[in-house]
Structures are given as structure tokens and as C-alpha cells.
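Researcher: I'm preparing a figure for a lab meeting and need a structural model of a single chain. I don't have an experimental structure, so a prediction will have to do for now. The sequence is pasted below. Please return the structure as C-alpha cells so I can convert it later.
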Amino acid sequence: MKTIIVKTQQDWDAIPIESQEERLIEIRGTECIYIKQNPNNSTATLHGNSSATPYDNSTATLYGNSTATLHGNSTATLYDNSTATLYGNSSATLHGNSTATLHGNSTARLCDNSTAIVWSAKSVKKYGRYAAIVKKQPIVYRNLADWVSTNDCTKINASTLLLYKRVSERFLTQEETNNQTEWVVGKTLIHSDYNPAQSECGAGQFHACAKPFFCDQFRDIRGDKYIALAVKIKDVFVWKKNPSYPHKIAFRSGKVLYECDREGKKI
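Model: Understood. Here is the structure written out cell by cell.
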């Protein structure tokens, strides 16, 4: 099987979709490569200081100082000083001095001097005498003020929060689904079926973050934009006890103020 060398996102996107399935791909660049165009069964090997974001059933093998963020049912094997952050049902096997941070139902097997930082995980097993498991305390927000302080959220005034979303290049979220929403600058949106207490995810609320870069956890599509929103405090909802996504907040209604960069600066 021929190995495909990828150094940039353009290199990855130029590979025909049929070639991304069940192929060995070596990532040797220094920018983050989003493995998502057709991720099913794709395999990537990361070297040096490269980084990648595998989705769904993707597989990544990390060497050197490479990093990866895994979603869905993706898997990773880490060597040397590489690091990974796992969400969903993703899993990792760690060797050398590698480190993984686990969320959701993710799992890990620890060998050598590897370390797992566990916020939430289904299973973590040690196979190395010097491997370490670091369990983090569950996050609990006492109230909205606690969430605002912890996440360094900005207040526009005493009754309004400045929040952010990551949207498509056409200012859409949930594209091509029944929940597709358009976030046009200047527009005020009101959720028609607001029920945030039911679930952290799903269609019962709008979602936002205290900082634009927090939103990278929820969208990773090339060409995405960031927007700033004004949301009344009376229209937000915080999941208080050990939320799966502590940077996220629900809201019923908000006004799109402007497009911004990843740090929140108005564009």
C-alpha cells in the first residue's frame, strides 16, 4: 500500500476521497490537519511537531512531539512525548512519555511512563509500572456567576453577557439538517423549542462559549468563522454538576453583534 505524505491541509484536501479510506497517510507538517473530509477508516501517522484532529472511525499514530484531538470512535497510539485529547468513545494506547486527557466515554491503556489526565472516562488501565493516572475533580458550578468567573466571560453590562459561536463560512450551524440556523450579523434569534435542562447537547437550546477559541471543541470545519453575541443573563442556562462541556452555555435568545477572530477581536 502506497504511503501518502501530508504536510498541509491543502495536501490532505487534495487527496481523492476514495484514497482517504483505508490508506496509510503520514502527516509531517507543523499545522493542524483536520482529518474529516471522509474520515471513515482513514489512518494517519504523525511525526515531529505535527498535529491532527481525527473524527469518527479514524486512526492516528503519534510520534515525537505531535498532538491529536480525537472525536467520535477514533483511536490513537502515542509514542515519545506526543499528546492527545479524547472525546466521545475515542480510545488511546500510550507509550513512552506520552500524555492523554480523557473526556466523555473515552478509554486508555497506559504503558511505560505515560500519563492519563482523567476528567471523565469509561476505562483507564495501567500496563506500565511507572504509568500514572491523574484524576481531576468534577467541575461543579454553583450558579451563573461561578460559570462567568471560571470561564473569564465578559459582561457587556449588568444584565448582558458577551458570548461567542463558531459558525460556517456562510454563518450557519447544523448545516443541511432540520436544525440549520443562520447567524447573520445584526439578527436576533429566539429558540422556538427551548428546553436546556433536558440535555447538554441536542436541539433544545442554542449553544455558546465564553471565548471564541473554546468553540473549537465543537466545530472544526475549514473556512469557519467566529461571531460575538449579546445574550441577556435571564436567557442563559448553566449545567451545574460535572458538565461534559464546561465551557459551553445554553441560551434562549441572543443578538449577533459582529464577526470576530479566534481571540474575540472584531473583524
